[in-house]
């Protein structure tokens, strides 16, 4: 499959987990990929290396997206590499924190919204000038926005905000031919959801899914690659559940 040949793609939080798998999938489909990372420079180097070894094109960019100006800085760096045309923006970087409302601090709440909502919002704003008809934005939502799973109210609220942004930005950017969607993974075995490594966590996860295995980052990356492709040209304003039939 090489349907993204000639396209440029930025994937935030691509040094590991779902972002890494997405970067590999988009590169395999022919896109030139920009691997954004926060502090894991070595891991980002390894992703770039993997892609180049397979004959693909990749560069890395390190920026903390938790600061108010992080998205602006990242957009600036992106423009120096790709010039004035970005075809695919995958806003994947995110943090989570399991805590009840009683336990959640103002600092945790603000940090969750800074990384999961403020950063993708202003990244889109800062990169809009590089996006044109056919460009596409893919946000990362979560099962948690749709169903009360875990002790995740503040995190879930950030993902609910993403689902709302998808609709509003799809409506406003559609006139420019830009599609905006999100994927909503269920539980995926990554550093974020490492409770799946323990038996209790696995059983809890399998108990709420129709499909009885634990999702891997690749399971999400394929759906992102689909949304990024021309096969999804008539899909916009949607949050695609990619969760093995969780909480049906
Ligand atoms: P992960 O922890 O493995 O990866 C998160 C990525 O975000 C990392 O690359 C990290 O460096 C980056 N990041 C975090 N804080 C950052 C900051 N301040 N600045 C820049 N980058 C930062 O987790 P993952 O599971 O791969 O998560 C990817 C996305 O998928 C997140 O948006 C997450 O909310 C979402 N998601 C994950 C699951 C799951 O079960 N793993 C389920 C639903 C949604």
UniProtKB/TrEMBL annotation:
GO MF annotation: an example: oxidoreductase activity
Protein family according to the UniProt entry: Belongs to the short-chain dehydrogenases/reductases (SDR) family.
Protein's recorded name: SDR family NAD(P)-dependent oxidoreductase
SMART domains: PKS_KR
Matching PROSITE patterns: ADH_SHORT
InterPro entries according to UniProt: KR_dom, NAD(P)-bd_dom_sf, Sc_DH/Rdtase_CS, SDR_fam
Organism per entry: Dyella monticola
Any Pfam family the entry gives: adh_short_C2
Domain of life: Bacteria
Location of the Ketoreductase domain: 7-220
Keywords, sorted A to Z: Oxidoreductase
